[in-house]
């Protein structure tokens, strides 16, 4: 004959079942990834590794590259290409990607074609200027407007006159202390 169950034991099992089910649900939800805002309970923000690959090619750099330049000149301006395929020796690919927390991910590809050792053409999307690129990856929320470091003419005139130290007659009569003329050697003597 089965052992009789106690009524208070059933209530305790039901009492523990709800928190256990809630904890299991939270654990399974954590396995599925983070929420769309990548924040848990509005408090914890996971660290994301900043991924930067390739060369940044800006509008100013692209303006300096002209057809007829040698490979060495193009390399000096744009840097070494990310992809230089031995099967396509007349093509260099400059691929750039960046994923930075707090900034929109960016990806660009610039293709440089050569005829022998001479630049033939450059295929590139609309590239940002250097200033625009830096502004797009700047994740500081504070303003970086620095105050001017020079005083205007009106500010200089408003400054108090410097206080001059009164020269005492005793200090004027004393000669300056003589500095030693002999210096120790820099290396130890043997």
From TrEMBL:
Q: How does it sit in the membrane?
A: Lipid-anchor
For the keyword GTP-binding, the answer is: no
- Specify whether Signal is a keyword of the entry: yes
Molecular-function annotations in GO: protein-macromolecule adaptor activity
One cellular component (GO) term of this entry: Bam protein complex
The UniProt keywords, alphabetically, are: Cell outer membrane, Lipoprotein, Membrane, Palmitate, Signal
Give the UniProt subcellular location, in the record's own words. Cell outer membrane
Q: What is its main location?
A: membrane
Q: Which Gene3D superfamilies does this UniProt record tie to the protein?
A: 3.30.1450.10
User: Which segments carry the region annotation Disordered?
Assistant: 162-190
GO term, biological process aspect, one:
Gram-negative-bacterium-type cell outer membrane assembly
What positions does the domain Outer membrane protein assembly factor BamE occupy?
54-120
Family, according to the entry, reads as follows: Belongs to the BamE family.
What's this chain's function? Part of the outer membrane protein assembly complex, which is involved in assembly and insertion of beta-barrel proteins into the outer membrane.
What quaternary structure, including any partners, is listed in this protein's UniProt entry? Part of the Bam complex.
The protein here is known as Outer membrane protein assembly factor BamE
What organism is listed for this UniProt entry?
A: Piscinibacter sakaiensis (Ideonella sakaiensis)
């Amino acid at each position: 004959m089965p052992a009789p169950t106690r009524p208070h034991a059933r209530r305790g099992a039901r009492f523990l079942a709800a928190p256990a089910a809630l904890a299991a649900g939270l654990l399974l939800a954590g396995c599925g990834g983070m929420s769309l805002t990548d924040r848990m309970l509005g408090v914890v923000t996971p660290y994301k590794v900043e991924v930067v690959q390739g060369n940044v090619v800006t509008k100013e750099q692209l303006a300096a590259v002209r057809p007829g330049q040698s490979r060495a000149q193009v390399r000096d301006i744009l840097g070494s290409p990310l992809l230089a395929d031995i099967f396509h020796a007349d093509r260099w690919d400059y691929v750039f990607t960046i994923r930075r927390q707090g900034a929109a991910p960016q990806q660009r590809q610039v293709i440089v074609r050569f005829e022998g050792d001479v630049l033939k053409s450059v295929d590139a999307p609309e590239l940002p200027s250097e200033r625009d690129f830096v502004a797009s990856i700047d994740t500081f929320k504070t303003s970086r407007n620095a105050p001017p470091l020079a005083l205007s003419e009106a500010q200089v005139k408003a400054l108090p006159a410097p206080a001059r130290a009164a020269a005492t007659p005793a200090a004027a009569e004393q000669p300056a202390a003589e500095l030693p003329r002999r210096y120790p050697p820099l290396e130890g003597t043997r």
